[in-house]
Amino acid sequence: MSEPILLNRLTAATLADTASGYGLLANAGLAIESGRISWIGPMQDCPVDIAKLPTHDFEGRLVTPALIDCHTHLVHGGNRAQEFEMRLEGASYEEIARAGGGIVSTVTATRETGENDLLAAALRRVDALIAEGVATVEIKSGYGLDHDTELKMLRVARTVARSRPIHVSTSFLGAHAVPAGANADTYIDDVCIPALTAAHAEGLVDAVDGFCEGIAFDTAQIRRVFEAARALGLPVKLHAEQLSNIGGTALAAEFGALSADHVEYASDADVQALARSGSVAVILPGAFYAIREEQRPPIEAFRKHGVPMAVATDWNPGSSPLGSVLLAMNMACTLFRMTPAEALAGTTRNAARALGLSDRGTLAAGQRADLAIWDVNVPAELSYGIGINPLHKRIFGGVV
Questions:
Q1: CA distance 199 to 201
Q2: Which of 9, 116, 241, 303 has an alpha carbon 20 to 30 Å from 107's alpha carbon atom?
Q3: Cβ 387 vs Cβ 325: under 8 Å
Q4: What is the distance between the alpha carbons of residues 282 and 246, in angstroms, rounded to a whole number?
Q5: Could you tell me whether strands 36-42 and 24-33 are parallel, antiparallel, or unpaired per DSSP bridges?
Q6: For the segment 5-64, what is each residue's pLDDT rounded down to a tens digit?
Q7: Max alpha carbon distance in the chain (Å)?
């Protein structure tokens, strides 16, 4: 653990819940002790004892909470560049999936790839996120669709956290797709739920996810997975209303899900259900862009009803090969008309909430000292740039 220090001459975007916009503090100082923020405020208000700490001068740069990518599929084998070509030639995402491509093709590659190779590939992806100021990432299983491979993926995800200075939150996504030739109900009962139970017993699961869609699982099948998660004391989240509306968002809200993700086809009633449940809507512009969807998520309805919105990459080999949180922020603004302040809150405060993590995502005393310091003049530059990485320094657990 590093010694107590004071960072000074900063412009701080606190992203505090009570703040409007960015919650900016000019000429700010931020003290770190035992890996936590011990004080933050204008330097003219700095307590005498804190002012005596060893100081790092950041010359007016912007500091934000370190970024959080709250929806990824970073552990997988192979890639799906061929399907990219197929989509450009006119095939839809659903058509490719029904023809044996899509998720099922990645399942084959992931089953055939050993843990060491899966880890090496995942670390390259994680390194790209770290380079953009990310300190927390969610990683899902879901490309195994059998007992052994689902657990293999989750073990690799845990190893990522031991191999890099990054926090990894794992999600069991056994209900991602129906394996080729399988019956969906039989798969849920005989493979998915037993694998979840085994993964939980091994300490590999932080949350449980599913894909509720016509090409995946219906609400009755997802309900059984969620009931199993509840019995294990695990929170749930859901890929919902991405390609159609079959009731996934309402189901997620019923179970008090941490988040409902994609939600392009969510209705006003769905939005109100999320508002009542306190669930986060995770906006995933990379998938919308990559599969050339036209139905946009109901951003204005989320605003109207006070549903917190997170933004994530959904980095996966098929529908969102997007390896940049900063670009995801830009796309959320340009494609969906989110504001830059909403995009930054979506990759900090609300992303933390989507993972059930209350100790990060804002700059406040007691929070983890996971920070990103940027070479920008105003926070909107983080969403404004396309292919630009203005990160000056990432601080993880208070280590400068």
A1: 5
A2: 241
A3: no
A4: 18
A5: antiparallel
A6: 999 999 999 999 766 689 999 999 999 999 999 999 999 999 999 999 999 999 999 999
A7: 69
